[in-house]
Amino acid sequence: MQLDPFMQSLGLKYPIFQGGMAWVADGRLAAAVSNAGGLGIIGAGHASGEVVQHEIEVAKSLTDRPFGVNVMLLSPHVQDVVDVILREQKNITVVTTGAGDPSRYLPDFKAANIKVIPVVGSVALAKRMARVGADAVVAEGMESGGHIGKLTTMALVPQVVDAIDIPVIAAGGIADGRGFAAAFMLGAIGVQMGTRFLVATESKIHPDYKQAVLKAKDIDTVITGEYAGHPARVLKNPMAKRFMRLEKQEAAKAEPDFSEVEQIGNGSLRDAVLTGDPKTGAYMAGQVAGMVKTKQPAADILADVYTQAMQLMGGK
Ligand SMILES: Cc1cc2nc3c(=O)[nH]c(=O)nc-3n(C[C@H](O)[C@H](O)[C@H](O)COP(=O)(O)O)c2cc1C
C-alpha cells in the first residue's frame, strides 16, 4: 500500500497511531509502537510537566523513531506540558490534542516544527482546526474508549473528510484490519486505535483492568457523565454503576449539584490503571473491547491489523 504523503512525512511504516491515552500510554508503550513502524503517542492526561518530561526521556531511550505526545486540554498542567514539548521539539514529531480547541497553542507548535493533529468529534471543530492551521485531524467517533462526542465513526469520518482539505485519521471502533479498511473507504488516510493497545504486552494497566477488557462482550460498555458532564465510555463495573446511579439521581433534582459525583470520577482512571480496583477505577474502553481477545506485543498488533487490511483491500 502506498502511504499517503502526510503519513510518509511522519516517517511511518504503518498509517496507524496508538491513541495518547491518559495514564496508559507511557513512554514504553509509545516507543514499542514507534519501533514497530506505527506512531506511538504518550498520553499527558492530567500529569505534571515533570512527569511528561520523564516519559519523553523513557521514549527517547527506547526508540530513535518518531513519536508524539497527546495534550489533554482540560488538564490544569496544560501550559507546563506545552512548555516541555516545545523544549523537546527536536524529538517530538506530532502533538495530538484531546477535549477541546487547541488554537491558542498552535502557533508555538508550528513555529517549533511540530505537526498538530487535534482530535475532533464534529464537523464544526474540524473546520475550525483546518482554518487555524492544524496539519490533520483525528475524527473520533463515540464508539471509542475514554471521553467521547456524540457522533459515530461511520457518520463522522466522511462528513469531516468532505468538509476540510487536510488529512483525516479515523478513530473509534477500529480494532482490526476490517475497521482499518472501512476507515480508508470513508476517506481516512490513517487510523488511531486505543482499546486494542490497552491489552498490548507493553501496556502497563493493572492485570484486572486488562482482564476485564479481554473478557468484555459487545454490550459491556456504558457512558458515564451523560448528566454530570464530560461523557466517557467505560466498561460496566461497580464504579461505573455507582457513578451513573448518583448522577441520574442528582439530575432529577430541581437544582442538581454534581460535585459529589465529580469527586468520585476524579482520579478514577488512575485507580483503574494503578490498582485495578473495580469499585473506584474507571475501566475506560471502547465498544470494540468485545473483539479484543488476545494480549500481544504492540508490534504484532500493528502487523496483524495491517496484514488483514491489505488482504481485504487487495494490496491497495
Ligand atoms: C483508557 C483511555 C484513555 C484515553 N485518554 C485519552 C486522552 O487522554 N486524550 C485523548 O485525546 N484521547 C484519549 N483516549 C482516546 C484514544 O486516544 C483513542 O482515540 C480511542 O481509544 C480510539 O477508539 P477505540 O478505543 O475504539 O480504539 C483514551 C482512550 C482510552 C481507552
Automatic annotation (TrEMBL):
The keyword Flavoprotein applies. Keywords: Flavoprotein, FMN, Oxidoreductase. GO terms for molecular function: nitronate monooxygenase activity. This is Probable nitronate monooxygenase. Nitronate monooxygenase that uses molecular oxygen to catalyze the oxidative denitrification of alkyl nitronates. Acts on propionate 3-nitronate (P3N), the presumed physiological substrate. Probably functions in the detoxification of P3N, a metabolic poison produced by plants and fungi as a defense mechanism. Gene3D superfamilies: Aldolase class I (3.20.20.70). The lineage of its organism: Bacteria, Bacillati, Bacillota, Bacilli, Lactobacillales. It comes from the Bacteria. The keyword Transmembrane does not apply. CDD domains: NPD_like. SUPFAM superfamilies: Inosine monophosphate dehydrogenase (IMPDH). Pfam families: NMO.
